[in-house]
């Protein structure tokens, strides 16, 4: 991807993901988001801290460490 063509790649990314290469090898992806919520969801799902929280919660669930909604009232 040439830097002087960035705007055309951003337009293309509105329709499909654009793979960025360096010397022929993929190094990144340009993608668009339809809404701010979609962007925030992407950021959250790709945040290592959030993913760790989810993994810990899944482990607790497998071990039966649950709190029922009725117990919260």
Q: Which percent band covers the strand fraction?
A: 15-25%
Low-confidence stretches: none
Major sheet, described briefly? 2 strands, antiparallel
Note the overall shape. Answer: elongated
Amount of helix: 40-55%
N-to-C order of helices and strands: HEEHHH
How many domains? The number is: 2
For the secondary structure, the number of strands is 2
Tell me, rounded to a whole number, the average pLDDT.
Answer: 91
Radius of gyration: 20 Å
Secondary-structure-based class equals alpha+beta
Strand order of the largest sheet: 1-2
Query: Please, how many helices?
Result: 4
N-to-C span: 56 Å
Structural summary, described in words:
The chain is of the alpha+beta class. The protein has two domains: 1-32, no CATH class; 34-65. It has four helices and two strands. The chain has helices at 6-13, 36-45, 48-62, 69-72; strands at residues 18-22, 25-30. The radius of gyration is 20 Å and the shape is elongated.
Task: Write the SSE topology.
Layout: H1 6-13, E1 18-22, E2 25-30, H2 36-45, H3 48-62, H4 69-72
Antiparallel strand pairs: 1-2
Question: What's the short version?
Answer:
The chain folds into two domains: 1-32, no CATH class; 34-65. It has four helices and two strands. The protein has helices at 6-13, 36-45, 48-62, 69-72; strands at residues 18-22, 25-30.
List keywords for this structure.
51% helix, 2 domains, 73 residues, two-stranded antiparallel ribbon, alpha+beta, single chain, 4 helices
């Amino acid at each position: 991807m040439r830097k002087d063509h960035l705007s055309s790649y951003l337009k293309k990314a509105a329709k499909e993901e654009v793979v960025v290469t360096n010397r022929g090898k993929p190094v990144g992806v340009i993608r668009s988001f339809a809404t701010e919520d979609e962007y925030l969801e992407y950021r959250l799902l790709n945040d290592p801290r959030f993913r760790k929280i989810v993994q810990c919660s899944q482990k607790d669930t497998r071990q039966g460490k649950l709190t029922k909604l009725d117990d919260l009232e």
